[in-house]
Structures are given as C-alpha cells and as structure tokens.
Amino acid sequence: MSKQGQACPSFENPPVIETVLSVQFEALQAFSTVHFGLFWEKVRNRFPETKDHPALPPTIERQQDSTLAARIRFEAMDSFTPQRLWLLNKKNTEMVQLQNDRFIKNWRCTDGNKYPRYAASIKPAFESDYAEFIRFVADQGLGEIKINQCEVTYVNHIVAGEGWNDLDEVAKIFSIWKQAEIVEFPGQAEDYAWRSRYPIFDSKNEWVGRLHADIQPALSINDNKPMYVMTLTARGMCGNDFDFFDIGHEAIVKSFKNLTTPNMWKIWKEI
Amino acid sequence: MNSALAIENWGATAYAPQVRKPKSRTVETVSMDAFARRERVAYSVPRVMQISVGSQEIKLTIEGSTTTPLWFQPVIDSMSERWGALAGWDSYDARPTDLDHAIKLLNYLSQILPDKAVAPIITPLADGGLQAEWHHGDKDIEVVVPFGEPARYYYFDAETDLEEEEELEDRHIETVRNHINSL
What we know:
The structure holds two protein chains of two kinds.
Chain A: E1 16-25, H1 33-43, E2 49-54, E3 71-76, E4 83-88, E5 94-99, E6 102-108, H2 118-139, E7 147-159, H3 170-173, E8 194-201, E9 207-220, E10 226-236, H4 244-259, H5 262-267
Antiparallel strand pairs in A: 1-6, 1-7, 2-4, 4-5, 5-6, 7-10, 8-9, 9-10
Chain B: H1 3-10, E1 20-22, H2 26-29, E2 47-53, E3 56-63, H3 72-82, H4 99-112, E4 121-124, E5 130-136, E6 139-145, E7 152-157, E8 162-167, H5 173-181
Antiparallel strand pairs in B: 2-3, 4-5, 5-6, 6-7, 7-8
C-alpha cells in the first residue's frame, strides 16, 4: 500500500460514524493526576463533560512483527493504574482523550451532523487542540514531547436497508468476500467477521506502519437494524510530528473503497 | 469478546460502541476447551502472569504467544541474583535497586529483543538503576537505565573501533536490535 497510483476516493454520504486521530509520545514523567484538572480548566468551555478511563497501553507497530511475535509488558503489581481522561463537548460530537503518553481527538457522528472531512475539519481541529496541549505542557514544565507513534481510525456503520438486507449478504457490501456455492454443511453462514493487517509504505516505498481492517456484525441499538461495523486503523510513524496522519488517512480511504463493492459506492455517492 | 472490546484493542479507542451491540456470541462460544487449542495462539488475547524479581512482584502481560521469549527467564534470574535489596549492597553507599527502574529496563528489553535473542547479564547500578550487558567477542553492548535519568545505550566493536553512545529513544530501538542480532 503506497502513495502512488489510485486517486484518493471521496463519497458524498460515507458511512463513517467516528474518526480518531491519536499521537503517542514518550511518557511525560512529571505528568500527574493534577494535570488532568489543570488542562481541563483550559478547555472546559468547549469540553464541559469528563469521564475517567484506564490508560491505553503503549502500542508501536514494528516492521518485523509477525502475527506470532510475542508482545510483553511489565508493570508493578501495586502500581497506580494509569489514567486516561475523556473530555467531551456538550453535543458529544467531539472528544479529547488525554493520558501521560497520548493525546487523542475523536469526532463522532450524531443525529444530523455530517462527516466534516479530514482536510477541512478533522485534521485542523486536531492541530488546534493539540497546540493547546503543547502550550500547556510547556507552561507546566512537563518536558519535551517526543512523538513515537501516530494513529488514524475510521469507524463505519454499514447499516442494512441500503443495498443489502441480511447479514449473510456480505458479498453485496465487501469485495473481499466472494459468495461460494452454498452446500448442505455448513450451509449459509448467518454472519461474517474479518480481520486483516496490511503494511503501509510511504512515497519512497519505505515501510512506515500498518493498516488494521476489522469487520464485525452488530445490531443498531436505536432500531435493532443489522449492520456491519468496519473499523480501519492506520498506525505508524514517519517524518516529524504527525506527518503520518496524511499517509494513514490516504491508506484508510483507498482501502475502504477497495474493500467494498461498486454497488455500495453508488449508495454512498462516490464523488 | 464483543465488538466494543475489539475496537478498544485495535484502534485508538473509538467511543461510538454504545450505539451498537454485538450481533453474535459466536466468538465466545467457540472458546470451549478444545484439544487443538494448544496448537494455536490466540494472538489478540492477552495473558497476565505474576513473576518474582528480587523478592518483589511484577505483573507481566503477554500477547501473541503462549510462551515467554527465550531471553526472558535468564534475564529474570540474572536480575534476581544480583538484586540490591538493601542500601550499601556493594559494600559502599549503593542505593537499593529500584523496582520501577527494573520494570523500565524489562520493558526496554521486551521492545528491543527478538524472541530468540541472546540474553544479557543484568547488573544493578549504585544509584538504584540497572543495566543490561552483552559482551561477545570484540563487541560490548549496554542498555542502561540510571536512576532518575533517561535510559541510554552503549555499543563498542573493538574490531572496527565503532563506538556509539546515545539516549535510548524509540528511533534507536532498531539500531540496538541490529547490534544484538550481530552478536
């Protein structure tokens, strides 16, 4: 998967319901619980709600990782569980997540708000909030931020009723499934799930990260409609700061198109 | 496993899972105790173990394998044998070996070392930190976690006279791994 070749696709009504941009950096040793509150004071007018969560473990994609390579992590038995803070806006459409080695920005689709586009809104909004965090870290003397990994995630809800109806009709949605002849055993599957990983290369064909594709059957809680949840996560590092975002975003949108069918592109109104 | 959990593990933490529920429990129901389970690795399911190092307990989470890497036990043994439990363990003014720094070193080693890497000798430092050392032929490698200072690595090849000493940042992990693979 490299930058060359296919043009970046775009859809008028993509099924994306959430985007995540995340930078992971070397842990700020001086960052303590009190800094969550101090940072919240800075952004409280835009993010008035908070929720506590356990911190995410550090994750770094490595080129030589095979599927079976062991990843091991050591922690003190009696150590304080590291925390992650969610800061949510009033409409619950935007969220900042903060921990001592990550800054994450989420956008979520709720009733009526359309996907605001990566270049026009998602990335600039991240840059603005991240700049606020950088200023805070400098003001508090918390040390230098050394980014070691970037992550872009797109969550898509592909809901029944548009181009397909039952969860067994995966071939209508995803190009990766070719409907085989149905035989008595095991018969027709009721639903399907899929996970795959792909290397990501930059324009010089250097390995810079990995794309994770995950497809799971689910039901909409609002109306019980069947859906497939397609999550595409690009994780890696190249250049300085968050240069990887653009490469990761490109890998996601091109892969999204190539993993789905022309039938669905029409429904999502390819531009 | 449900879809919300899957996203938590795979992505950077989406918060939309509350708008859906998992369609099927298939993934849970197939995890009955099948005989063949010993022949495969569920690489997405972490295992948590408790290990003792120098009379202290450490939590170990392992993903992607049912076994620990070959370097793991020799490193734990070496660390335990040389653990400086009390102040002055070196007959001078050494501080007791600090558990947090030991954990930091172990986490560096887990990032750097391939599963079948040559295990280093672990040496406590007088300031309470630790270092991992490899001395093979003309080559010396050290990964040093000093107390209260950034970790660093040292490499020396007497044959080529190549010497490196740097702060151990993520961009150096590959370099140190290559040095260790060259032993």
